[in-house]
């Protein structure tokens, strides 16, 4: 890839086009990120805010087993959500990609339809569904089962996250499946591969970039989510997102909150880089 | 320029006087004489920060009509939020948040005062202070109301469904260790100091303790209690009780939906806290006379009783409580608690740097199993 010339007439021509966007990004992303970065190295003000004394205490506190456990728990929850999303998302995307064109559009609209209403309202809907006297238990009773206490457990948190981010798994999978030339699969079949072998040796490897992107799209927001653990988890379990939120809104500990946010960012950056590296390696193979 | 400054200083208070060096009268102490009781408050305007729904909707219009002072209302969701706003310029007392009057809980008023951000209350400008109960002068975070004026007060207890709870709770242990029938039918609060309160009181400790040993014991008890909890809930526990999703909840008195005949509120025998939400005047305010006039206006029984009738919080205003609608009093037992009963509760005070211990405790309890 050729680098953009940073000076000269071409930049002057580009500036009117890129300027507004770049300014917006700089002001609204780089500056706050810089603040987060600098706050992580300052001391906590007794009444909130920061005291301008440099320290690395906030970063060393991250190694405390208490917070390491929270990070581990979040990783596990997000990983389980991602795995389930892949398990449910792949067949869905596979079927959608195999539909006639018009039907595909309808199916895709159905997938993104939930995004048209507020996330919070949809989470509250899950509370109604899962709660003790709720619909889930009514349905279970109708078939002679239950009742089960799902609400305010880790299972409810994973259910909520899965529901929230499943479309983000389906869409990239669909994109890579629909690009797959049907002739490649026909060729595999002609050469004597059964459906399972075709899937395992042809379809899955060729759609791996889509799988990676989908996994990333689900894992990243699940990892930092704090609404679902609070509402569906009943505040009984803590994820990194809750911990960060609490540092600002309850504990008046902005520097530690910033350090946690920074750690979260670092983990996600590593994942993004790994995904980019894998995708590129795959593309040049 | 110097003349202009002197005029401004009347309103801006003594701090500015000392900074600009208008020292003709020598060094003056932070006394009530810094304000001018004859100042024309209609030339001033106020920005008031308060919790949403915590004052009458038409308060600004009424103040404009009755006092001639334009009032702008800003909302804050939590004490932490307003603290962050007020201390944003550093806790030196030189920050100007643009806020003249703020509503904060007692321990936060105490912290703000220690940070030098509050104007002392000029009692001579608030004749309606006489409406307050004598007990309202004895609050631990600010004895004699020197930098804050109480707006509402109350306590924390157990809110429960009489039809679902067989044995009415009398002790914090009934909440922490409920009978098997109430397993997963109990909620507790998650805000740090109130998360610790039931355990600390059950163990006979102060709600303001900073002893590691006492907090450790509380943690053990809270982790044990967590196994029987439905959820941690600060905001919707009342709804859960009404719907029957839960049967018992740690609750602030005003938040317990006692207007439902099946729901009762009780203060456990080990005792509880006394929380107070207060009004404070910021030192940075340039409209301090109007700010005092507003506080005086709110202490009028007509206005102050609104809080008791509409948000069901007790107000420390004797005159206001005496003119409450008897029907409201009849329906809501917590409103009938006397100031003497309330004062048995321990005031929650700011514990300074030890606040981090409570933060850690609540993270440990929330993350633990």
Automatic annotation (TrEMBL), chain A:
How does this protein lie in the membrane? Multi-pass membrane protein
User: Where does the record place the ABC transmembrane type-1 domain?
Assistant: 71-277
- Keyword tags: Cell membrane, Membrane, Transmembrane, Transmembrane helix, Transport
Q: Give the similarity note.
A: Belongs to the binding-protein-dependent transport system permease family. CysTW subfamily.
Main localization of the protein? membrane
Q: Does the keyword Cell division apply?
A: no
GO cellular component terms, alphabetically, are: plasma membrane
User: Which Gene3D superfamilies did the record assign?
Assistant: MetI-like
**Gene field:** potB_3
Q: Which GO terms describe its biological process?
A: transmembrane transport
> Where does this one sit in the cell?
Cell membrane
Q: What InterPro entries does the entry give?
A: MetI-like, MetI-like_sf
Protein's UniProt name: Spermidine/putrescine transport system permease protein PotB
TrEMBL record, chain B:
Which Pfam families does this one have?
A: SBP_bac_8
What keywords would UniProt list here?
Periplasm, Signal, Transport
| GO cellular component assignments | periplasmic space
- This protein's record includes keyword Lipid biosynthesis: no
**Keyword Transport recorded:** yes
Q: What is this protein called?
A: Spermidine/putrescine-binding periplasmic protein
Q: Where in the cell is it found?
A: Periplasm
CDD domains in the record, alphabetically?
Answer: PBP2_PotD_PotF_like (cd13590)
Please list the GO terms describing molecular function. Answer: polyamine binding
PROSITE patterns from the xrefs? PROKAR_LIPOPROTEIN (PS51257)
The organism's place on the tree of life at top rank: Bacteria
- What is the originating organism of this protein? Streptomyces jeddahensis
Q: Name one GO biological process term.
A: polyamine transport
- What gene name is listed for this protein? potD_2
| InterPro entries per UniProt | SBP, Sperm_putr-bd
């Amino acid at each position: 890839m050729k680098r953009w010339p940073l000076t000269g007439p071409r930049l002057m021509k580009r500036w009117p086009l890129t300027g507004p966007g770049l300014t917006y990004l700089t002001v609204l992303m780089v500056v706050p990120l810089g603040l987060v970065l600098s706050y992580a190295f300052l001391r906590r003000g007794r009444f909130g805010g920061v005291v301008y004394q440099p320290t690395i205490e906030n970063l060393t506190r991250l190694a405390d087993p208490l917070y390491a456990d929270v990070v581990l728990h979040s990783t596990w929850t997000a990983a389980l959500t991602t795995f389930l999303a892949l398990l449910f998302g792949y067949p869905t995307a596979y079927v959608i990609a195999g539909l006639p064109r018009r039907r595909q559009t309808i199916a895709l609209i159905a997938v993104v339809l939930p995004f048209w209403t507020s996330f919070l309202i949809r989470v509250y809907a899950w509370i109604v569904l899962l709660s003790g006297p709720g619909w889930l238990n009514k349905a279970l009773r109708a078939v002679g089962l239950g009742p089960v206490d799902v609400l305010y457990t880790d299972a409810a948190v994973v259910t909520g996250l899965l529901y929230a981010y499943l479309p983000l798994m389906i869409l990239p999978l669909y994109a890579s499946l629909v690009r797959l030339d049907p002739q490649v699969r026909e060729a595999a079949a002609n050469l004597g591969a059964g459906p399972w072998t075709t899937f395992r040796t042809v379809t899955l490897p060729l759609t791996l970039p889509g799988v990676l992107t989908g996994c990333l799209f689900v894992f990243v927001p699940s990892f930092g989510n704090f609404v679902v653990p609070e509402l569906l988890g009943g505040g009984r379990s803590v994820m990194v997102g809750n911990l960060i939120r609490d540092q600002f809104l309850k504990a008046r500990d902005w520097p530690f909150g910033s350090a946690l946010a920074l750690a979260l960012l670092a983990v996600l950056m590593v994942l993004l880089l790994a995904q980019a590296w894998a995708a590129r390696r795959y593309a040049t193979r | 320029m110097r003349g202009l400054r002197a005029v401004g200083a009347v309103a801006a208070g003594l701090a500015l006087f000392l900074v600009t060096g208008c020292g003709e009268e020598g060094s003056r102490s932070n006394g009530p004489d810094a304000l001018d009781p004859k100042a024309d408050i209609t030339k001033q305007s106020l920005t008031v920060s308060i919790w949403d729904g915590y004052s009458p909707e038409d308060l600004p219009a009424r103040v404009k009509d009755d006092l001639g002072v334009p009032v702008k209302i800003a909302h804050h969701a939590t004490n932490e939020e307003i603290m962050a706003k007020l201390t944003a310029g550093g806790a030196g007392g030189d920050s100007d948040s643009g806020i003249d009057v703020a509503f904060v809980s007692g321990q936060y008023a105490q912290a703000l005062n220690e940070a030098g951000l509050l104007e002392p209350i000029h009692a001579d400008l608030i004749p309606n202070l006489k409406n307050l109960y004598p007990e309202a002068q004895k609050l631990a975070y600010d004895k004699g109301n020197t930098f804050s004026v109480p707006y509402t007060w109350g306590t924390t207890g157990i809110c429960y469904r009489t039809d679902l709870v067989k044995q009415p709770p009398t002790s914090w242990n009934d909440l922490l260790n409920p009978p098997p029938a109430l397993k997963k039918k109990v909620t507790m609060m998650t805000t740090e100091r109130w998360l610790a309160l039931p355990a600390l009181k059950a163990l006979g400790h102060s709600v303001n303790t900073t002893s590691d040993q006492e907090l450790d014991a509380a943690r053990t008890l809270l982790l044990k209690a967590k196994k029987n909890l439905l959820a941690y809930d600060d905001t919707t526990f009342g709804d859960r009780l009404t719907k029957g999703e839960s049967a018992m909840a740690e609750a602030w008195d005003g938040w317990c939906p006692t207007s439902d005949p099946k729901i009762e509120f009780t203060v456990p025998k080990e005792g509880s806290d006394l929380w107070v939400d207060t009004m404070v005047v910021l030192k940075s305010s340039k409209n301090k006379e109007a700010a005092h006039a507003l506080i005086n206006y709110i202490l009028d029984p007509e206005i102050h009783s609104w809080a008791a009738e509409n948000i069901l919080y007790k107000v420390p205003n004797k005159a206001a409580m005496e003119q409450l609608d008897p029907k409201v009093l009849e329906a809501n037992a917590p409103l009938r608690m006397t100031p003497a009963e309330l004062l048995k509760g321990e005031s929650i005070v700011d514990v300074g740097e030890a606040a981090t211990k409570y933060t850690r405790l609540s993270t440990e309890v929330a993350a633990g199993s």
